[in-house]
Amino acid sequence: MKKQFLLCTAFLSCTIMARAQKPDTAQLLVHYKFSHIRDTTNQEHPYTENMVLIVGKNAGVYKSYDKQLQDALFKKQVQEQVANSPDGHVNIQRRSSGSGTDYYQFPNGKKLARKEPLLFNSYLITDALPAIEWEIGSDTATFGGLHCQKATGHFKGRDYTAWFSPDLPLHIGPWKLNGLPGVIVEAYDTKKEVYFKFDGIEKAVISPQKSDQPASPAPDNQGRMAVMIGMDDQVGDPNIIQLPTNAIKTTEREFSKLQEAMRKDPNAFAQSMAAAQAASQGRPAPKIDIRIGPQPVINNPIELPEKK
């Protein structure tokens, strides 16, 4: 426990908050029905999730649409309860829905940033945008009124077919897929164990709030502000493409260490992280009890080792 506390304290003190990046205004949203056969012994029940690729002029972000909707509903419920509660007490049973990992692509700078949630914090891991050698074919198809071309390429142990639209010239796609002369609107591997299925496209609708200003939480009837743990998107409009400024900047290696510590002993890890945060703020550490249910079987990860 003491060792984990020191590790977490040192880690939190050595990392810096991600620098705010100039926001990009979303132009359109591409929706996907994502499916992944994680367990090859249970292929009839793949993992599924509604995802969205928010496409801007110079950048894009791929995230869970299910989680985006759930977060918006949760935020509304909390604000309503806080506003109508005489003592500020809130009692909402939140249902977890959707993954919290977001993938930011910056093709001009050849950068990929990944935001990962872990307990009370979000972590930001930045790397080079992966280079994929695509072969563009002559086949064409139409997706949602978009004229698309077919391309094939190998990435992370899988052979992919991708359909991209030259009419949408930004060189991005879902997940880490990128590098074609147009937005990738559908992609799948040869076995269709990983499938980013096109599910529609829409024009982004931006709120009147300025994109570079954080959204202010609504005060309750006594002037107190509602602070929502886990609601880490600081911009008021979910269609604004901006790296989270409150995420802790780290490396893949350091984040893997934190994940492993969490996996081995969730309660000790949670307590040490909370204690480290409390110490930095000069307040007592809270008592935390983490309960983690059965974990899914994953014998077929999305990224496979390359055959030698």
Plain-language structure description:
- This protein is an alpha+beta fold and 308 residues long.
- It has 4 helices and 13 strands.
- Strands 1, 2, 3, 4, 5, 6, 7, 8, 9, 10, 11, 12 and 13 form a 13-stranded mixed beta sheet that branches.
- Helix 1 crosses helix 4 (266-281).
- The relative contact order is 0.21.
- The model is unreliable at 1-20 and 209-231 (pLDDT under 50).
Briefly summarize what is shown.
The chain has 308 residues and is an alpha+beta fold.
Core attributes:
13-stranded mixed β-sheet, alpha+beta, disordered N terminus, 20% helix, 308 residues, single chain
What portion of residues is helical? 10-25%
Largest β-sheet summary:
13 strands, mixed
Global mean pLDDT: 81
Low-confidence stretches: 1-20, 209-231
Net shape: globular
Element string (H = helix, E = strand): HEEEHEEEEEEEEEEHH
Distance between the termini: 41 Å
Q: How much of the polypeptide forms β-strand, as a percent range?
A: 25-35%
- Oligomeric description of these chains: single chain
Number of continuous helical runs: 4
